[in-house]
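Discussion board: Methods & Data

I've been asked by a reviewer to show the raw model output for two of the constructs in my manuscript, not just the figures. I'm not sure how much to include, so I'm pasting the format here to get opinions. Each protein appears as its amino acid sequence followed by a line of discrete structure tokens. Is this the kind of thing reviewers expect to see in a supplement, or should I convert it first? Here is construct A:
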Amino acid sequence: MPENITPDTKTHLARLAKRNRRSRGDLDGARKKLYLALEHAEAVMRDAAASGDGALVLKAVHATTQTTAAFAKIVEVGELEARLEALEAAHEAQATAPPVDASPASARAYA
């Protein structure tokens, strides 16, 4: 074993590797779950308001605001991910395209 790798370091590296192998899920699935949670929190809020349970109304309002914030963030990340994929595709197409000669001499040849 190299000098800078101790048994503790090796265990830590193994734990990191295991964490990286886990499925990270997908944004679309998380978005759907958050939307369902938001609908549920709103239903609880309406039912609590109808029954006059003020404490439960406040808890449901808090859950609704937290879920809404998380939902908005996931939508934003999804949009950024789509824009990044489009930029990467455009960059890849540009990288594989033949170079364009923009020198003044070539411009005069076409004039």
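Construct B, same format:
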Amino acid sequence: MTALETELPRARVCGCYFHFNQALWKRVQGLGLAAAFRHDHRLAAIIPYHRTLNDAVQVRHPSLWMFLRHLKDQQQLAEEKLERADRGDPPPTRRRKWRELEARLQRLREHYIAGRRDLASFWKAVSRNVFL
């Protein structure tokens, strides 16, 4: 018997994964933790969690058990990332295309700060580097 069945014996478990995530994010915002997610370098490493979990589940409406299995797997991966960050391990090597994009954007930023680009040309150049 699961904890859910023990604590809520008459409950019918159903729901939408999308709405669960939406409610979770609203809760984070309601607790005033959204800024921490954006600025804490430890959390910055796991912000893509939502996308990663979506990619792992690959089902629009997973069963509770499938969702919990993937959630536990992702929790383990997140804890491992935090442990590596706490130890001061270097971040994993990124793909060449992302390293090159970061270098181009960094050069644009430096040119803007140095006054070699105005704001309009800076954003135009940035937009040419970012493909959605």
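Answer (T.O., handling editor elsewhere):
This is acceptable in a supplement if you add a one-line summary per construct. For B, something like: The chain is about 70% helix and 0% strand.
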